Amino acid sequence: MSAEYPKHPFLLHVDEVVATLGVNIEKGLSPEQVNEAQEKYPPNEFEVSKSITWYIILSKQVFNAMILVLIFAMGLSFGIGDYIEGVVLAIVVVVNVTIGFYQEFRAEKRMDALRALSSPSATVLRDGKTQVVPNAQVVPGDIVLLKMGDTVPADLRIYEAMNLSCDEQSLTGESVPADKSIEADILVPGSDQIATSADQVGVGDRLNIAYATTIVRKGRGRGIVVFTGMKTAVGEIAASTTKRKRKPGRSLNYKKYGMKQPFVGASKRTWDAIGKFLGLTEGTPLQRKLAALAYYLFGCAVILAIIVFGAHHFVLTGEVVIYAVSLGIAIIPESLVAVLTITMVVAVTVMRKANVVVRDLSALEALGGVTNICSDKTGTLTQGAMIVRKAWLPMNHTYTVHDSRSPSDPTQGRVGYAATMEVDEKEDDSRCDYDRERSAATLRFDLPEPKEKIPLPATAPEVDAVLTPALRAFLLSAALCNLATVRYDREESEWQVTGEPTEIALQVFAHRFELGKKSLEREGWKQVGEFPFDSSIKRMSVVYNAPQGGASQVFPNDRSVVFTKGAVERILDLCSHLGFGTSSQVLTDELREEVLKQMNHLASQGQRVLGIAYREWEKGRFVMPHSYGGSGSDSDIAIRAEVEQGLTLLGLAGIYDPPRRETKASIAECATAGIRVHMLTGDHPETAKAIAKEVGIIPRNMGIWPEAVARAAVLKATDFDRMTKEEIDRLPELPLVIARCAPETKSRMIDALRRRHAFMAMTGDGVNDAPSLARADVGIAMGSGSDVAKGASKIVLTDDQFNSIVSAIRQGRRMFDNIQKFILHLLTSNVGEVILLVAGLGFRDSTGLAVFPISPLEVLWINMVTSSFPAFGLGREEAAPDVMRRPPHDKKRGIFTDQIIVDMLVYGTMMGGLTMVSFCIVIWGANDGRLGVECNKTYSDACIPVFRARACVFAELTWMILLSAWEFKSLRRSVFRLDPDDESRFPLFKDLYSNRFLFWAVIIGGLSVFPAVYLPYVSTELFKHTGISWEWAVSVAFTLLFVVGIEAWKFVKRRLQLLQQTPVRHDEIFNQGEEGLGPSFKKSMTFSSFKEWASFSLKDSTNGFRSRSRSRSRPLPQQPDGDSSGAPDGLDGGVNATRAV
Questions:
Q1: pLDDT band for position 1116 (50/70/90)?
Q2: Which of 142, 155, 167, 376 is catalytic?
Q3: Does 376 qualify as catalytic in the annotation?
């Protein structure tokens, strides 16, 4: 519920908003109005990210498909009076449910700790008095007072702003704070038209609105609360994460879809409800596959029971029912749920140590099937902070920052210097109105639309930067014309910064040369005037008196100096000269074009370009006129105009949000693993494109792609949103970069990927990422991000690093492989037991009843004890060396690939056949086929042969299952040489002992056979077998024969390449993480193209690049400076696109 406005408040004048809400702008709301509003509107809170109650978590564990089948089997056991089996199955159910409940409940509690539980306060004007109230008590109509550092409590219509700037990064993805205004005449971005409806202007361009949860970075202001709680921009995004969209074809509208639709829609809705309860239509692929497996096995158990009943002519005596129950128990892997859950618990623990918090246990296995990652840029691929990357000083002096790991630490990295050489290139003389190209009246440094080709200036070899007089003057201006602070906190042992991000970047750059503002002021620089940043003129100036004396002084000490910074073209309009000292020149039109050329070059690399200028005050010491009040009056404008004229341009600063160091390598590893990375960002298209090229999402030379692919690779959100579903589906490739993204754009991208049968993960940290985090198959939020984003995600990265995502995917794939191994291990034993028991239907005693060759409790012991611990061990196996060089697993087939199914049948048949032969050898080979009477129930002398045969089969089956666990460490390689790179002559013991849990589980399990066979009462009354002697030789012989059979089948698979996994299909032209500098060798080549590739190869040898044909696991050789960013522009670091012919 919210106030009714004739139009969105950002389109209304302040008087109209005041009239609608009935508030006195001078006094605020009266107590009566506040009480009335609190009754009318809900509290100013977000109704998302609530904790899941314990009984919901418990119900999810109980109504698991496999658990339901076990409960049914338990009830049947109690129903026929077999209480021992019933109690054992009850224990199995309790253990499975307890383990799953405990882990998921702990994960939810960890997320409760991550959520921000404290509610900030707001300063409001009520009844003419300033009050501080909790955010939840703010109501529409409240007058809120804002100052630097405040968190905006609700959506405000700003009516008073003094240099007010808000950080809206979490909402819009824009890393530069937005400067707020009070005007209602908002222009439609990219035109002169005044907006008349809300859909014409995006959230980030509504400059008279301050949004809830954003932070005031500078200035002060006042605003009227227009929306609260779930009606705010953040609240609407948060609400969208909880909305459930109905699947297609579920409508009951017969008018729109025909008379059959109500019946079709109702039947599909019914199936959805049943499938949801049974776990067949919701959950991750593994969950759905295991649910289907449970019901399939249950169906097989019913069929086998019918076969048992039919074999006894449907005379259902107690022994017949027990035999049927034995078959049912044999076919169900009772320990599967427990093994799966514990394996996930171990994986979650490992992930937590790697700074990954798993909120939803099922999300971890889903990571192994991820085919696409849709990532935000700011704070995810990049560091979320600004840094000066390049500084250009007239004429042709370029300073570049390398190896900066922390944007706020001036001691990190180094500054290199290179002289830029002239290039004789003709450029289009057309001029752009760079100010109009900004989408918001904020401190946006000129980002022009790129021309067809921006000439790449040639550079001389780079050397370490030296502090020259020109550079000193540039740094003095950048440090003093600056409101940011940079200081080293000795207690925290880290650098602390405050202020606006671009100013912090300049201040840190000055600190690299020990010319920070505080140190300069201690030397004697004294501020005597300030002309604050004004969004209408996009510049800021300060006036300082130079200190007296000083050997390093570059300015006269008897004069004041004016320092100015701002948008390049605005600064150039005020300049008469450029350069410093002896290199100072009059600013001619040719030099102006040269400066603009340099600006274009920096802007094309995704940098925001800032101009730095100065002026010596000719009148000596400057005295700020008393009439100046900074109010924007005509007299103030005249005073400022007098100061800001005749400036000398000192240089340009290229500032950008740098990629994280690990991002490019992580994207390259994703490409190796068959995973494609998409960047979906709210930032400027050129900035997004430049960062995408730098981290390897798109090639630096887009011309190596076909025109249609290159055109679709980078799109603006407005272009993507205008496309219909059919047009999107016709694209040769979905966009790899989408700029100026709105939440709806990201959701449309997720839907487009899903229509192409992709299994995607979405990473993000802002409120604007929450809808796509919720809709993606796996939502991954950043720990430093908003609570809304964390509440919508399944996984949270506490260190915010993109490479943690790759680690999570690697862990997901490792776990998927291990799940396949222990499922094969468990189901192989089930197949063997079923074959053995079905064959046992032919073993009839004198009464005509079938004699089971293995008793029900023997089956339960093998399934729950013998198989479980080796299965746990298989779940702890380390990742295979090639785990990130395989494609994502097929989500349709899931864990049950052709190889798993065929192996299960082959090994299970061998196991069942060999144990059946062993039983026959003991009964018919040594005891003339004597099967006794009622040997399924009681022990007697007549039953000794049967009991000895069962003991032989029990020992043999136990050892087979245990040794198969070692064999299944690799599904294709021999257990005698698991590691093909191991050069030792006999690495068997070393390989087996590498997984100590599995090693001792097999050893102890093998030894446990002896007490199980010989313990009095336990052997005869429970297991229905007795001690043996010569039969041990039969068990050992057939166990070894089983191992030989496994090795033979593996050899056949390797030799004939049967059931081999398809390798990752790499693009022949460009793979993400590469440079993508030129065409593939497969394209036609001319002599000039040969020279071009030869030059790239030469640069490869000097810059440490490598051929694509080499293994990615090999470390890259480092450049002399230790960082690839020291290479010439367009060639800085990464994996080269060159391939072996």
A1: very low
A2: 376
A3: yes
